[in-house]
Amino acid sequence: MSPQVAFQIVAYDIRTFGDPVLTSVAEQVENIDGKIVRLSQAMLQAMYQAPGLGLAAPQIGVQKQIFVYDVDGEPVTLLNPRIVESRGEWVYDEGCLSIPGLYVEMLRPKEVLLEAVDLGGNTIQIEADELLARLFQHELDHLNGVLMFERMTPDQREEALTEYKRIADGGTSEGETRHIGLK
Ligand code: ZN
Q1: What spacing in Å lies between the alpha carbon of 158 and ligand 1's midpoint?
Q2: CATH number at residue 28
Q3: Does residue 138 contact residue 94 with C-beta atoms inside 8 Å?
Q4: Of 35, 39, 74, 45, nearest in space to 57 by CA
Q5: Which of 79, 95, 99, 182 is at 20 to 30 A from 53, Cα to Cα?
Q6: What is the whole-number distance in angstroms between the Cα of residue 20 and the centre of ligand 1?
Q7: Region 92-109: what's the mean pLDDT?
Q8: Which residues are catalytic?
């Protein structure tokens, strides 16, 4: 084994629906140490590889309140996030790296004010609208052990579970996606 291996970021697999880590509540980050910094780097690597716009720690099997995202070429890591305010309504075709192949149209608040801690330990607030606001709500759900299925209407949930099972069983060709409209 070459000595460089020790300095490489450990590669993680993205956990998918059915893995119990995705339905448990993540713990607060108390200390921002080297482990947390390395974890955030590994999360970003997994997110870019997927590829996805956002990733929460439970999605790589770590029960910590951390999520990463990149919507405009700027990687961001946030710790212990909470939504302080939300307003409006917005429908968006939401997908999840842990539920691959499925996109479901969902209604959620359009704007949110998120409060979180950055890797420097500073408490920050971010005003987000539309896509970024949706991303925040989606990643925050992951940290609370909530998956998209819980946000769907009962009809959508039934259809989504059937479709997801079909996709997971190889019933579709590689890379095929299924969209479920709002009903
Ligand atoms: Zn997700």
Answers
A1: 19
A2: 3.90.45.10
A3: yes
A4: 39
A5: 182
A6: 14
A7: 95
A8: 139
